[in-house]
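User: For a reading group we're discussing how well predicted structures match intuition. Take NADH dehydrogenase (Quinone). Before you show the prediction, I'll give you the sequence so everyone sees exactly what went in.
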Amino acid sequence: MKDFKNKSLESKFKELEDFIDSLEDKKAELIIVLHKAQEIFGYIPREVQQFVAQKLGVHTSKVYGVVSFYSFFNMTPQGQYPISICMGTACYVRDSEKILDEFKKILGITIGEVTDDGKFSINVLRCVGACGLAPVVMIGEKVYGRVTPDKVSKIIQECE
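Assistant: Thanks. Here is the predicted 3D structure of NADH dehydrogenase (Quinone), as C-alpha cells, for the group to look at:
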C-alpha cells in the first residue's frame, strides 16, 4: 500500500483491508469481499483484485475468474448512470443490437466506455431475466422494458 500516492486511494484500500480483517473465514467470503471492493472503489481494477487475492490468501486468477464471470462486477469505471443492454436470446431477436447502436450513437461512446462528463457508461448483459419485457435495458437498478431505438433519447433525458 505504500506505493499508492493518492491519499484517497490509500484510505479506500485501508477500508477494504479493515473489512477483510473483520471476516472470520476469509477464503469463503470472496464474493462478499468483491461486492465490498466494488462499493468502495466503484469497480474492481487489477490492483484491487491483486490486493484481495493477497489478503484472502488465494491466487489472483481465482479472483479474476469470479470478477469476470459475474456480470454485476465491473473491471472498468462506470458512469453515474451505468446503462446495460440485454443481449440474451429474447432481447437479441427483438433487436437489442439496434438499441445498443442508438445508445452508442447518441452518447458517442462504445461498450466499456464512459462519457466525458462521467454521467453514462455502456455495457451489455447476457440475460436480465425479464424476457417477457424484451428488449430490456437497465440503468442502474431501473429496468426499461420493450425498448425501441426511438425511445432511447427519452430514456437518456430521464437520467439528466
